[in-house]
Specification:
mainly alpha; two-stranded antiparallel ribbon; 2 strands; globular
């Protein structure tokens, strides 16, 4: 996903973008490449807590270890890059 798409999605669905879209784009790209996951699915996991079925990110509505690892990796990439 590109920064403009991220910002547009957040503004359209939530009324504002509280994140830095360029940092968000970079963190998505790094994390999705590291774990071989679609960047839009990862975006929806981060923003809307939607499960990624193929990655087993949720079990009974809670994050699995894999889901937490994806989210934590994204957060580290977002705040440290």
């Amino acid at each position: 996903m590109k920064a403009q798409q991220i910002e547009s999605y957040l503004v359209e669905n939530y009324g504002e973008c509280r994140h830095n879209p360029k940092q968000f784009e970079k963190a998505l790209a790094i994390t999705s490449k590291s774990y071989d996951v679609d960047s839009f699915k990862l975006f929806l996991l981060i923003v809307e807590n939607r499960p990624i079925e193929s990655m087993y990110t949720h079990s009974y509505g809670f994050h699995t270890a894999n889901g937490r690892k994806l989210i934590n990796t994204f957060q580290n990439n977002y705040y440290n890059n």
